[in-house]
Specification:
The protein is α+β, with helices and mostly antiparallel strands and 86 residues long. The chain has a single domain, classed as Dna Ligase, domain 1 (2-Layer Sandwich). It has a five-stranded mixed beta sheet, with helices on both faces. The longest helix is centred in the N-terminal third of the chain and has 15 residues. It starts with a strand and ends with a strand.
Length: 86
Protein backbone atom coordinates (compact mmCIF):
# COMPACT_ATOMS: atom_id res chain seq x y z
CA UNK A 1 0.00 0.00 0.00
CA UNK A 2 1.26 3.45 -0.89
CA UNK A 3 1.27 6.01 1.92
CA UNK A 4 1.09 9.77 1.53
CA UNK A 5 1.47 12.26 4.39
CA UNK A 6 0.36 15.86 4.14
CA UNK A 7 0.91 18.59 6.71
CA UNK A 8 -1.15 21.76 6.60
CA UNK A 9 0.29 24.51 8.77
CA UNK A 10 -1.04 27.98 9.48
CA UNK A 11 -4.62 26.90 8.81
CA UNK A 12 -7.06 24.68 10.68
CA UNK A 13 -8.33 21.90 8.45
CA UNK A 14 -11.69 20.29 9.19
CA UNK A 15 -12.86 16.83 8.09
CA UNK A 16 -14.54 17.96 4.87
CA UNK A 17 -11.51 19.96 3.76
CA UNK A 18 -9.18 17.07 4.57
CA UNK A 19 -11.45 14.72 2.62
CA UNK A 20 -11.37 17.02 -0.42
CA UNK A 21 -7.57 17.17 -0.32
CA UNK A 22 -7.33 13.38 -0.05
CA UNK A 23 -9.81 12.84 -2.87
CA UNK A 24 -7.87 15.12 -5.22
CA UNK A 25 -4.73 13.09 -4.58
CA UNK A 26 -6.48 9.73 -4.88
CA UNK A 27 -8.16 10.61 -8.18
CA UNK A 28 -4.96 12.02 -9.70
CA UNK A 29 -3.58 8.65 -10.83
CA UNK A 30 -6.80 6.64 -10.69
CA UNK A 31 -10.06 8.19 -11.83
CA UNK A 32 -11.92 5.21 -10.37
CA UNK A 33 -10.46 5.52 -6.86
CA UNK A 34 -13.02 4.86 -4.16
CA UNK A 35 -12.88 5.79 -0.48
CA UNK A 36 -12.76 2.51 1.44
CA UNK A 37 -12.29 3.69 5.04
CA UNK A 38 -11.46 6.81 7.02
CA UNK A 39 -10.73 8.14 10.51
CA UNK A 40 -11.25 11.50 12.22
CA UNK A 41 -9.06 11.31 15.33
CA UNK A 42 -10.29 14.52 17.01
CA UNK A 43 -13.96 13.52 16.84
CA UNK A 44 -13.09 9.86 17.47
CA UNK A 45 -15.25 8.69 14.57
CA UNK A 46 -14.38 6.38 11.71
CA UNK A 47 -15.87 4.26 9.00
CA UNK A 48 -16.56 1.47 8.90
CA UNK A 49 -17.56 1.08 12.52
CA UNK A 50 -15.79 -2.24 13.17
CA UNK A 51 -15.65 -2.42 16.94
CA UNK A 52 -14.14 -5.89 17.17
CA UNK A 53 -11.88 -5.85 14.11
CA UNK A 54 -8.63 -4.71 15.73
CA UNK A 55 -5.72 -6.88 14.67
CA UNK A 56 -2.23 -6.57 16.19
CA UNK A 57 -2.98 -3.07 17.49
CA UNK A 58 -4.26 -1.71 14.17
CA UNK A 59 -7.74 -0.17 14.47
CA UNK A 60 -10.66 -1.88 12.73
CA UNK A 61 -11.23 0.82 10.13
CA UNK A 62 -7.60 0.50 9.01
CA UNK A 63 -7.68 -3.30 8.93
CA UNK A 64 -10.87 -3.08 6.88
CA UNK A 65 -9.27 -0.65 4.43
CA UNK A 66 -6.22 -2.85 3.91
CA UNK A 67 -8.34 -5.96 3.40
CA UNK A 68 -10.82 -4.34 1.01
CA UNK A 69 -8.60 -3.27 -1.87
CA UNK A 70 -6.99 -0.34 -0.06
CA UNK A 71 -4.05 0.76 -2.22
CA UNK A 72 -3.51 4.32 -0.98
CA UNK A 73 -3.37 5.62 2.61
CA UNK A 74 -3.51 9.41 2.90
CA UNK A 75 -2.65 10.93 6.27
CA UNK A 76 -3.31 14.58 6.95
CA UNK A 77 -1.59 16.33 9.87
CA UNK A 78 0.02 13.27 11.45
CA UNK A 79 -3.07 11.05 11.25
CA UNK A 80 -5.53 13.71 12.46
CA UNK A 81 -7.43 12.52 9.40
CA UNK A 82 -6.71 9.33 7.48
CA UNK A 83 -8.37 8.23 4.24
CA UNK A 84 -7.83 4.87 2.55
CA UNK A 85 -8.65 4.55 -1.14
CA UNK A 86 -8.88 1.59 -3.49
Amino acid sequence: MQSVSITVSGYTVDFEQAKQIAELLALHDNEFAMLVSWNDREKNIHSPQCLHCEIKGAPGWEVYGRNHAGRLRISINDDAFVFMYS
